[in-house]
Design brief:
Number of domains: 2
Transmembrane segments: 94-120, 140-164, 185-204, 210-232, 366-388, 408-429, 494-518, 538-556
GO cellular component, one term: membrane
Number of strands: 5
Strand order of the largest sheet: 1-4-5
CATH class of the largest domain: Mainly Alpha
CATH topology of the largest domain: Growth Hormone, Chain: A
Mean pLDDT: 81
Keywords: Membrane, Transmembrane, Transmembrane helix
InterPro entries: MFS_trans_sf (IPR036259), POT_fam (IPR000109)
Helix content: 55-70%
Low-confidence stretches: 1-21, 570-588
Family: Belongs to the major facilitator superfamily. Proton-dependent oligopeptide transporter (POT/PTR) (TC 2.A.17) family.
Order of helices and strands: HHHHHHHHHHHHEHHEHHEHHHEE
Number of helices: 19
């Protein structure tokens, strides 16, 4: 793992201080994790059980409610691109997280008020069938609240992960914590907060009221803002170095303008300017790669170019060309995560609807809220992360020789396989559930509880949790490690955009299947009111097929992927070329 961008050695020597020993490290983690914990309490406390709020309180049809949630999830995972751009280009991570948290707080206040004030939601149903759907004005308040929450998430999600990783410097002997360990425990802490949300908060929403159910995470978000700002003096804050997207565009323009120039026979003849790149490559210069050679033309020096003060729209350095190559290489791996999220998204919609029809009683007086079934996903994820970090890495290290045990591409591949089995199993469990409903004559009764234990759903929930422990953390590691040094927030945004598109693909699938499987007698794979009359197992198996195709695609992309190479300058080496080059095995 290469070192992360920080102040240059020269600047430290001139100032006569050692900021690495004063800033960052483990002492900053409580402040950073506090922000993430409360953000997840707010997001998950809202999302996990919101299908119930939309259908029972706002009286939305099931498919419309499911699509509303996946659209919100998609938007909330797309806005990180905006947050990352602002962070990497202008504001920096700390300021972006702070402002975004405040915006999120406003959205939570608005959402809580919509749940508390009767005039902001439709009246209760009169009987089982007579329900007035929420008015356009009531829905507008809901959507504005969701939009503010999505914008707030867009600033928090891409920055808080990268900001935490920035606090560690692997060259500093006092901060030997590996970034891959940080990612494991970041996800573990996040998972713990989600566990609280899907148990305590969901119970409060179902049994106490939505005012309290949303008010508690709203208060938690306020506390997180105060806590995060309170750690300001401890943080290692890295200044933004201008828009990374503009740099990438300049490389593309320069390569296009020189498209007719003959390629140089030796890559050593390409333009390099370490002084020009110093502010964007403090972690090390990217070395020339053999892929996408047409972009190399941007670094060919012609008679019209001034190498001392180059016009970057005509001449780019090798490092800047390799930045663009890195982003292009990451694209196929990024795309492979979309279908996995499509599969995972069903836990908050149709899997929850399954749970609502099943026997959830632990005792005669207590039953598990349907929204709390995802606790099995989280518990499995947390257990898998702990096992992976404490046991699997140590065992794998003996065979691979890697500090991290296995590569993040291996880790992602394992997650894809497990997720495939999750939806395959879900289809068979749905057949079992409907069989029991048919045996007891309950197929036509949407609101009757089928005498089959909700614990039949545990395998599909648990497999999704295990898949996330492998794939999602591997995905985070991949983006942070393989992205250019100056684009760490942007790299985290890539992670969230794959989640965004996964939710949008889910919306598209649900919409198309609901439309094209509709029969003349109200038959449908995904009916609006009575899931017992549907063919939900076919839907799960369709996703399983898509995941199988996606797995083949991923294996091909991972096999072809070339890791970036970095030339790292080490202080104290007396040679004129004080470099260390780390090469990583580029096979799956």
């Amino acid at each position: 793992m290469h070192c992360r961008k920080e102040q240059s050695f020269e600047k430290m020597e001139q100032n006569g201080n050692h900021p690495r020993k004063k800033k960052g490290g483990l002492v900053t983690m409580p402040f950073i994790f506090a922000n993430e914990v409360c953000e997840k309490l707010a997001v998950v406390g809202f999302n996990t059980n919101m299908i119930s709020y939309l259908t029972k309180e706002l009286h939305m049809p099931l498919t419309k409610a499911a699509n509303t949630l996946t659209n919100f999830g998609g938007t909330a995972s797309l806005t990180p691109l905006l947050g990352a751009f602002i962070s990497d280009s202008y504001a920096g991570k700390f300021m972006t997280i702070t402002v975004a948290s405040i915006i999120y707080q406003i959205g939570m206040i608005s959402l809580t008020l919509s749940a508390v004030l009767p005039q902001l939601r439709p009246p209760p149903c009169k009987g089982e069938e007579v329900c007035q759907e929420a008015s356009s004005g009531q829905l507008a308040i809901l959507y504005v609240s969701l939009l503010l929450s999505a914008l707030g998430s867009g600033g928090i999600r891409p920055c808080v992960v990268a900001f935490g990783a920035d606090q560690f410097d692997e060259l500093d002997p006092n901060q030997k914590t590996k970034t891959w360990t940080y990612f494991n425990w970041y996800y573990f802490v996040m998972g713990t907060s989600i566990l609280v949300a899907v148990t305590v908060l969901v119970y409060i929403q179902d049994n106490v009221g939505w005012g309290w159910g949303l008010g508690i995470p709203m208060a938690a978000m306020f506390i997180s803002i105060i806590t995060f700002i309170g750690g300001y003096k401890l943080y290692r804050n890295l200044n933004p170095e201008g828009s990374p997207f503009t740099r990438l565009v300049k490389v593309g323009v320069a390569a296009f303008r020189k498209r007719k120039i003959t390629k140089v026979p030796n890559s050593n003849m390409l333009y390099q300017n370490h002084e020009l790149d110093a502010d964007i490559a403090l972690g090390g210069m990217l070395l020339h790669s053999q892929q996408f050679k047409f972009l190399d033309k941007a670094a060919i020096v012609t008679e019209e170019d001034n190498v001392k003060t180059p016009d970057l729209w005509r001449l780019s350095t090798v490092h800047r060309v390799e930045e663009l190559k890195s982003i292009i290489r990451m694209g196929p791996i990024w795309a492979s995560g979309i279908i996995l999220i499509t599969a995972y998204a069903q836990q908050g919609t149709f899997s929850l609807q399954q749970a609502k029809t099943m026997n959830r009683h632990l005792t005669k007086s207590f039953q598990i809220p349907a929204g709390s079934m995802s606790v099995f996903t989280i518990l499995t994820m947390l257990t898998t992360i702990a096992f992976y970090d404490r046991v699997l890495i140590r065992v794998a290290r003996k065979f691979t020789g890697l500090d991290r045990g296995i590569t993040f591409l291996h880790r992602m591949g394992i997650g894809f396989v497990i997720s495939l089995f999750a939806t395959l199993v879900a289809g068979f469990i749905e057949i079992k559930r409907k069989k029991v409903a048919m045996e007891h004559g309950l197929v036509d009764h949407a609101n009757e509880i089928i005498p089959i234990s909700v614990f039949w759903l545990v395998p599909q929930y648990s497999l999704h949790g295990m898949a996330e422990a492998f794939m999602s953390i591997g995905h985070l590691e991949f983006f942070y490690d393989q992205a250019p040094e100056s684009m760490t927030s942007t790299a985290m945004a890539f992670f969230w955009t794959s989640i965004s598109l996964g939710n949008y693909v889910s919306t598209l699938l649900v919409t198309l299947i609901h439309k094209f499987t509709a029969g003349p007698n109200g038959e449908n794979w995904l009916p609006d009111k009575n899931v017992n009359k549907g063919k939900l197992e076919y839907f799960y198996w369709l996703i399983t097929l898509l995941q199988f195709i996606n797995l083949i695609y991923y294996l091909f992309c991972a096999k072809m992927y070339t890791y970036k190479k970095i030339q790292v300058h080490h202080k104290g080496d007396n040679s004129s070329e004080d470099n260390h080059i780390e090469l990583v095995n580029n096979t799956l």
